[in-house]
Amino acid sequence: MTRIGFIGLGNMGGPMAANLAKAGHAVQVFDLVPDNLTRAIAAGCVAAGDAWEAVSGCELVISMLPAGDHVRGLWLGESAGERGGQDLLAALPAGALVIDSSTIDVASARRVGEAARARGIRFIDAPVSGGVAGAAAGTLTFIVGGEAADFEAAKPILALMGQNLFHAGALGAGQIAKMCNNMLLAIHMAGTAEALALGVKEGLDPSVLSTIMGKSSGNNWSLEHYNPWPGVMENVPASRGYQGGFMTKLMVKDLGLAMALAEHAHSAVPLGALARNLFNLHASQGLGELDFSSILGLYLDKAPGEK
């Protein structure tokens, strides 16, 4: 049994922490949202009063936060808090391993990792893919940047939350690979929604059209595993009012990170830029809290899920 600190219990972090507790580990958790803590306690975790208490006595800590500002604020103390803005790295012993599974900008990941290394603390950036369903089922993909030895040390814990574990390269490489993945995800989700809307407007049944495209050259992950049309596929956000998935506003954030990366690399990303504009437009209509597959609504003459 390993004592694990876990900070950030949202749609993804909550199920991840629950799987660690289910595997028999002592998981000390903290989140700013009381309901998230309540669910974690029900799953077998131990609630802490703050982040410092959550990492107390832990040699392995996982963070799952919304953005780079939050990660820097937590680990580097860039925002003043109840501990006077002191960085959380100071609470960890030398040799401790930090796994940050947030999807953030590369510069923030490297900055925190370098600060950790200066203190003798191991750090890997390990963003995930697989959605809320994957987090609950323990089938996530972890995309890791950092030292190979630190990746190997983390694998037994990562394997309790995911099925596919990849070492992408040096510190920050996990974030780069994740941005490329999510940009492609946005492109094929927008395209899938567009194609389905066209067919349905011309009288086709969305289930029939999905089956045809799924067995043809237009098949893709969004169509096969995350269909955006309500009622076509069970256990996806589209069939539960676009709730409980990957929020549109987070996709907009990730696409913004991809655009910044493209600018840094002087790389042309015309389809990625278009996808960002589409999802940003969708979010601006007050739909940012809905799952990103609700982009279907842009192609229809009604709100997503509306009959």
TrEMBL record:
Keywords: Branched-chain amino acid catabolism, NAD, Oxidoreductase. One of its GO terms (molecular function) is 3-hydroxyisobutyrate dehydrogenase activity. Residues 3-169 form the 6-phosphogluconate dehydrogenase NADP-binding domain. It is an enzyme of class 1 (oxidoreductase). PANTHER family: 3-HYDROXYISOBUTYRATE DEHYDROGENASE, MITOCHONDRIAL, 3-HYDROXYISOBUTYRATE DEHYDROGENASE-RELATED. Residues 172-299 form the 3-hydroxyisobutyrate dehydrogenase-like NAD-binding domain. Its EC number is 1.1.1.31. Pathway: Amino-acid degradation; L-valine degradation. Belongs to the HIBADH-related family. The lineage of its organism: Bacteria, Pseudomonadati, Pseudomonadota, Gammaproteobacteria, Aeromonadales. The gene is mmsB. InterPro entries: 3-OH-isobutyrate_DH-rel_CS, 6-PGluconate_DH-like_C_sf, 6PGD_dom2, 6PGDH_NADP-bd, HIBADH, HIBADH-like_NADP-bd, HIBADH-related, NAD(P)-bd_dom_sf. It comes from Aeromonas eucrenophila. PROSITE patterns: 3_HYDROXYISOBUT_DH. It catalyses: 3-hydroxy-2-methylpropanoate + NAD(+) = 2-methyl-3-oxopropanoate + NADH + H(+). This is 3-hydroxyisobutyrate dehydrogenase.
